[in-house]
Amino acid sequence: YDGSERVNTFSATFNYIWRIDTLGSTLKVMADYSRNNRRHGNDSFVRSTAAGIVRDSTYDDRTRGLYNVAALNAALEKRLGEAWQLRAGAKYTYNDMHNEALYRYLRPEGWETLDTYSYVTDYTEHITAAYAAATLKKGHWNVVAGLRGEYTRTTGYGSDVRQRYFSLFPNANLTYAFDAAGLWSLTVQYARNISRPGFWALNPMRMQISDYTYQTGNPSLDPAFKQDVNLTLVAAHKYTLTAGVQLVSGEIQQTIQADPENPDLLQLAWVNYDRTKNYYVSVNLPFQ
User: Fold this and answer.
1) For residue range 253-278, what is the model confidence (pLDDT) as tens digits?
2) I need a surface site. Which of 79, 163, 209, 214 has the fewest CB within 10 A?
3) DSSP structure string for the chain
């Protein structure tokens, strides 16, 4: 048995901050890029003798994963006085993944590929977003409200993924301080977020788990959208009590179901649930 692995990683980051005025307003431009190239190989030879019969098996595998991730972000923070502050910006994210695997075994007539385990898949995701948020501090009140818009375009080769969608994500935060120092306060929050399916959840390649069960992805998987409403009490500036509810549309989960083509088989597949509702309570009590 002989195995090898080679990993090459490259990353670069660029940040530029321009202080616009004496109030503390800034314009930031941030860019980062990361590339990861991973290659893995195995060569195996097995020879066994039992009851005078000699058997041997020769096989190998080669896998590769190439990942390119880049992001460009421009953010403006403008102070309009002691009470008002405006934040706005735009961001572009690029995710590109290439995965391939080749599994072979040696027969008397030559090498034969194991098609069940071999694959080549490419997956590219473009996310363009813009946002704006305003902050108001007045007396015991602190208000933050914002809106983010995102457009996502996803394509996959070998996994048959074609997705395009646009969504809006509002958020609001209202805080009331019971004392001038803000040691005791009460905050109510609302936010809408998105959870995109991962690459392997979209890949329809079948991976056998047992004689009657296999795991597969779902190219038609949609993103999940979550609305979160919560109320937080802060005591003595360090103890917190939070209670809230999460309303999820299209929650992404794995489930076991019958194979549509062969009911005698079970598939462990990714699906979207229609709607789920989660209630939660959390307490933070730090001490020394």
Assistant:
1) 999 999 888 888 999 999 999 999 99
2) 209
3) -EEEEEEEEEEEEEEEEEE-STT--EEEEEEEEEEEEEEEEEEEEEEEEETTEEEEEEEEEEEEEEEEEEEEEEEEEEE-SSSEEEEEEEEEEEEEEEEEEEEEEEETTEEEE-TTT-EEEEEEEEEEEEEEEEEEEETTEEEEEEEEEEEEEEEEETTTEEEEEEEEEEEEEEEEESSTT-SSEEEEEEEEEEEPPPHHHH----EE-SSSEEEE--TTPPPEEEEEEEEEEEETTTEEEEEEEEEEES-EEEEEEE-SS-TTSEEEEEEE-SEEEEEEEEEE----
